[in-house]
Amino acid sequence: MAQPTTTAAAWPDEPEPLSLDTAPVPAYGSGSLADLLPTLAAGLGVPGFEPLISELAPADRICVFLIDGLGWEQVRAHPAEAPFLASLLGTSRGGTGRPLTSGFPATTATSLASVGTGRPPGEHGLTGYTVRDPDTGQLMNQLRWRPWTPPHVWQPYPTVFELADAAGVHTAQVSSPAFQDTPLTKVALSGGTFHGRLSGEERMDLAARRLAEADRALVYTYYSEVDGAGHRFGVDSDAWRGQLMHADQLVQRLAEQLPARSALYVTADHGMVDIPFDGESRIDFDEDWELRAGVALLGGEGRARHVYAVPGAEADVLAVWREVLGDRFWVAGREEAVAAGWFGPHIDERVYGRIGDVVAAAHDDVALTASLAEPHESAMAGMHGSMTAAEQLVPLLEVRT
Questions:
Q1: How far is it, in rounded angstroms, from Cα 342 to Cα 364?
Q2: What is the pLDDT of residues 274-307, one digit of tens each?
Q3: How many angstroms separate the CA atoms of 272 and 260, rounded?
Q4: What is the pTM of this model?
Q5: What is the mean pLDDT of residues 49-56?
Q6: pLDDT higher than 60, residue 246
Q7: Over the chain, what HEC string results?
Q8: Distance (Å, rounded) from C-alpha 374 to C-alpha 221?
Q9: Residue 90 has pLDDT above 80, yes or no
Q10: Region at 161 (left for phi over 0; alpha for psi -120 to 50; beta for the rest)
């Protein structure tokens, strides 16, 4: 009997790499975190700023409350745990009910620098959780500032808070005392007066008082524990839901104390996704010889990697990473990522070498971990960094008096 003919169509196709055109680039210049403070400063009459987020109306007294890890999709998915926040969803972005985009990568150091300087990552230069310092060749952790690097050499632009304070706006930050003297605070959030308060309730009460102390005021306050619970236990955990409930109560507490002619904006630095603890979802760079070949340094974090190749191996590393990961990650060469606008419309010369020779941003619920080099980060249940909606979209909830 004749054997059946096997044709090429009978075999499954190899997965096609994700097209870079499908990566949802942040809305720099009109609807990103970097556009928020310039818009608010313009409304306060601070020279040199324009209202980049056109939907926002000016106010005399402005408070920005940034809740670390409070993604837009997470708020929408948990109305029972966050009833006050859910009631404000329609106010987001000036009553349009739309979110902002965080910026790439969607990670705390990058986003806080974007908020504070009013500039996208390609300008302020904090382009990831860890990036290569072109002057030393070492990885620089921009959240923990290790190894120590002169802060205002690394990020030389003044913050919006500093410019507002110089223009006569009553300016203050109310946050944990632990953040007062950190290099990240100095380069991203300094300007006016810093007030350290331990509890969230104390911060809300003091932020309201600081708003009332002047006819023109800009106050920033911050809460980090939603993000911490998400990293440790995941956004599908009771611990995370408990922190969301507490953040909801803090926002309501602050809103109920706002003085006249005030606007409160509640936003976040990024959202988060849970990554299953299995070999398909967590790809271990330290155990994968193919991905390690030709790589001198691995930067970034699990869902937004900067890959620094051995000199001369850049093209080969890009080809391998695209072949191995390209159906689950957007994988771009440095020039491709820059041309696509991932880090903003302009890249300062000092920043260009901080971007990886290869940049990999997760599309699926996967992470590229490094169990030996990054044991703490690799063990996290919840992660962020990439351009998916769950990570990238953040609220801009508004309460006005």
A1: 18
A2: 999 999 999 999 999 999 999 999 999 999 999 9
A3: 35
A4: 0.95
A5: 98
A6: yes
A7: CCCCCCCHHHCCCCCCCCCHHHCCCCCCCCCEHHHHHHHHHHHCCCCCCCCCCCCCCCCCEEEEEEECCCCHHHHHHCCCCCHHHHHCHHHHHHHCCCCEECCCCCCHHHHHHHHHHCCCHHHHCCCCCEEECCCCCCEEECCCCECCCCHHHHCCCCCHHHHHHHCCCEEEEEECHHHCCCHHHHHHCCCCEEEECCCHHHHHHHHHHHHHCCCCEEEEEEECHHHHHHHHHCCCCHHHHHHHHHHHHHHHHHHCCCCCCEEEEEECCCCCEECCCCCCCEEEHHHCHHHHCCEEEEEEECCEEEEEECCCCHHHHHHHHHHHHCCCEEEEEHHHHHHHCCCCCCCCHHHHCCCCCEEEEECCCCEEECCCCCHHHHCCCEECCCCCHHHHEECCEEEEC
A8: 30
A9: yes
A10: alpha
Determine contact, residues 47/75, Cβ cutoff 8 Å: no
CB 27 within 8 A of CB 101: yes
* 397 bridge partner residues: 266
Those residues with Cβ within 8 angstroms of residue 26's Cβ, 6 or more apart along the chain or in another chain = 32, 101, 102, 103, 104, 120, 342, 387, 392
The model's pLDDT over 98-123, given as tens digits with 9 standing for 90+, comes to 999 999 999 999 999 999 999 999 99
Sign of CA dihedral 99, 102, 104, 106: negative
- The residue written with tokens 């990831």 in the block is 128
Taking only Cα atoms into account, the Rg of the chain, rounded to an integer number of angstroms, comes to 22
CB 149 within 8 A of CB 189: no
Across-strand partners of 399? Answer: 264
Question: Could you tell me which residues come within 8 angstroms of residue 173 by beta carbon, excluding any fewer than 6 positions away?
Answer: 161, 185, 189, 190, 191, 192, 193, 194, 195, 219, 220, 221, 222
Contact, 63 vs 211, CB < 8 A?
Answer: yes
Q: Extract the tokens encoding 35.
A: 């556009």
Q: Is the pLDDT of residue 157 over 80?
A: yes
Location of structure tokens 């400063």: 41
C-alpha dist (Å) from residue 138 to 134, 135, 296, 334: 8, 8, 10, 18
Residues 291, 324 contacting (CB under 8 angstroms)? yes
User: With pLDDT > 70 as the criterion, what percentage of the chain qualifies?
Assistant: 97
Nearest to 239 by CA among 249, 250, 227: 227
